[in-house]
Design a protein that fits this description.
alpha/beta; TIM Barrel; globular
């Protein structure tokens, strides 16, 4: 699957879909902000037809923030983004909705070890899962180093406390490698808790000190960096999950406008994914 941020956020949708088809992808991802752009220019009205013509679907929706607060306290853009995500799901029949962790919602050094924080955050997650279930969506927490849900262990605590059948995790090798690198934890996850898996690669030492900037600018296609993809793949497979594998390769050098370079980049990333999965 071609995750949305393997190309720039507002990449031409026709080029995006054509490149995914040429690379042999069965699905693409979308982003709530970009989808609103497609609604504004009328493209969203033709998107189902464009997908059908290429035998593609939109599988995952990126990404909600500010969900770990009571609905009455959530900022207005959080409600708008959630409404957009549900509109996308209703129109395109998407499979999963990704959510990013909160930051600064606990005074604990490790929030996931704070029972009160876990209870509160899980209640918010459960509420989101219940609302998403009305749109037939799975909801997946993407753990991020430097946030209140920094690793798979913390995400698992929240998901299990929430106890919703449609709640689970995104496993992104970049955040795993740059964070806890807890292969034993990944391998111990119940199969049903793993909703999506995202593969990229990169240097072991960050190029940019700021985590978010480095994440958005310096990923490499699978197999072209220094990360332990073999260990990650083995750990994910040990769970027994049937979750789809996606390429999410955010990089400054990813193409911007030309169809040829778009197809070449996506093809390179997809080939890397297949090679890594085939080797391990």
């Amino acid at each position: 699957m071609l995750s949305h941020f393997t190309l720039d956020r507002h990449h031409d949708i026709t080029q995006r879909l054509d490149a995914a088809t040429a690379a042999g992808c069965s699905a693409v991802g979308t982003h709530v902000g970009d989808y609103r752009r497609l609604e504004a220019d009328g493209t969203a009205d033709r998107l189902v037809e464009m997908l059908d013509e290429r035998n593609l679907c939109v599988s995952e929706i990126d990404a909600l923030r500010d969900w770990a607060a009571p609905r009455s306290a959530a900022p207005g853009d959080a409600a708008e983004n959630e409404a957009t995500a549900f509109r996308i799901a209703d129109r395109l029949g998407c499979r999963s909705l990704h959510v990013l962790p909160p930051t600064g919602t606990s005074n604990a050094t490790t929030p996931a070890d704070d029972p009160e924080w876990v209870t509160h955050t899980a209640a918010c997650f459960a509420g989101l899962c219940d609302r998403a279930a009305e749109h037939y969506l799975l909801v997946a927490i993407e753990f991020l180093p430097g946030t209140d849900i920094a690793d798979a262990a913390g995400a698992r605590r929240v998901v299990e406390e929430a106890d919703r059948a449609n709640g689970g995790l995104v496993l992104d090798v970049w955040h795993h490698e740059r964070g806890a690198r807890d292969l034993a934890m990944l391998a111990s996850l119940p199969a049903g808790i793993v909703i999506d898996v995202q593969l990229s690669d990169g240097p072991l030492v960050p190029v940019i000190a700021d985590y978010g900037e480095d994440t958005r600018r310096n990923r490499l296609p699978p197999g072209e960096g220094e990360m332990d993809l073999a260990g990650f793949v083995a750990a994910v497979r040990a769970t027994g999950t049937g979750a789809p594998w996606a390429i999410e390769v955010c990089n400054d050098s990813a193409p911007g406008t030309t169809a040829g370079s778009t197809a070449e980049w996506v093809g390179r990333c997809a080939a890397g994914l297949r090679s890594v999965l085939g080797q391990h």
